[in-house]
Amino acid sequence: MNRAVGYIGLGAMGAPMVQRLAERHHGPVFGYDADAGIMRRACADAGVQACDSVADIAGRVDVLLTCLPNNEVVRAVYLGPDGVASAIGSRAITIDCSTVGPDATQDVYAGLKEKGARHLDASMLGSTKQANEGTITFVVGGDDDAFAEARPILACTGQMIRHVGPSGAGNRMKLIHQTLVAGHAVAVAEALALCLATETDIEAFYEIVVQGTGFGYSRYFEARVPRMRDGEFSPNFMLKFMLKDARLAHDLMPDAQKVLPALSAVIGTLEEADTKGLGGEDFSAAMKVLEARVGKSVARS
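RE: above sequence
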């Protein structure tokens, strides 16, 4: 069946994803973004039709994907006046790829269910590189039948596609994953700061971690440390979004301050970076907070 597919949110992740859909999906593809300039460029680059509004695109498609910045925007786009719920067809499937809290997803799930539509949360693992390659990992929450029907659409833009439970389960899995990523970013920054403070050879440390048989290795360490050494912090994934994700993970547990002290400390470092104006840089810019603390720079002189 050549289902019509739409995509709302054509930013750094959405634009390359709609291109992959246009290339790989055998059916019409539509795009929409609240920023008219971004929408025109992304739709022209992908060769897809731009729509006039959220309700316009929702009324045209059988499957609608969204990639939006936060809980408030997700609720507004789906459930607000002239939102998705106002126009979506019965039995249509919506797939929210945003990283949001499970409460927001479950509100959308319930609101769309009243309209006869089916909602999935399909949180993404990966950044702009994977979006451009079409190799994103999707962790998906929602009903089994909706997932089975949506999987071929997700396969146009991703590789590993895993159904992890009912509505909101994908969000929870992604947020828990992000506690590892955020924690690792800060741990790497602290380790490098310790190298700087003790005049330990960073090049030797890097080689030992990457090529040795210890447990300090990670893809983040291998990829980001050379960039930091070059003074390169242009964003693959912005620090402000990592901070948002870490806070949402913290909110999953009412007594997180007591039970998850490491996560609370990581959030503190990311907040410090954000207040220093580093939110638009790559999340590895947490390193700059540690540089300020030790009074030395990790970049090669």
